[in-house]
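Tutorial handout. Part one gives the primary structure; part two gives the three-dimensional structure as tokens.
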Amino acid sequence: MKYSVRWWGACALAGALLAALSPARAAEWPERPLHFITTSAAGSPLDTMMRSLGKELGDVLGQTVVVENRPGGTGAVGMNMALNAPADGYTVVSATGSTSFLMAEKDSRFQPSDFIFLRALQTEPSSVAVRKDSPYRSLKDLVEALKRQPDKVNVGGYATAGFHQYVLYRLEQKAGFKSTWIPYQGGNQALLALLGGHLHAAVITPSTAMAQIRSGDVRLLGISSESRNEFFPDVPTFREQGYDVVETLWRGVMVTKGTPPAVAARLVRGMEEVEKRPAWKTFMRENMQDSMPMSQPDLQRFVANEVADRRQFLTSLQK
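Part two.
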């Protein structure tokens, strides 16, 4: 009798686990608030996206979404926090093009296979920004100053060995200069350093300085899009100024490996619904963001390929 009770107990437990992962159960998910982890500082474009997504997705799913900032280590702090949480879909962490750089590091503890990349929601180019009173009127002016006195020109942006430093690295390759990168915890912090005179130029996404660009306090010397950006039609591209550098940054979200497929699929469907909502479309337009429509499997492959491509850049920094 003892063994029979144990056997039936084991069957009941197995049945409960299967039920938890069944499509019917997933249809009821989520049953409690979600936790969004933003891997950059408050007020940054990534933080703004995560908070807007949290509000809209919460409405779609019928649950509260709590957003927490965990900047540091190009996303490592927030990603560690996500990996230490249960793989149940309730913890969602931000991911960007800079995430690929973190995963490409030689001794990185993170790999693309550790996460399920759910959705890429935004994409925008990088840019080189200066204050309105800067003596640099073009990208060529800045390049020539860096060639003459690289130790006299302070250039910085978000993160060490991340997307924006990579853009500067590509410019160095094409223009033939060297510089010292000054990293910040968020693009908005780099902008404050620029406005405060601590940086002579900041490599940032244009949306980071949107208000300052509109007011005239910040000028963009160039933009890394393939052609002139519809939101900044008066800003010349790097390419048309003689520097063949074309790069864009994506922003999205991911969950940890082991998240039930039905739950991951529910999150993806929820975000697809968010992208159709008028409030989200208005948010994207007001923040000058392009969309990046891509299926979850395609995004997973895209990130894996991007990580492989970024390793060459990181190797060059170690020489």
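Part three, for discussion. The domain at 127-246 is CATH 3.40.190.10 (D-Maltodextrin-Binding Protein; domain 2). The chain is about 45% helix and 20% strand.
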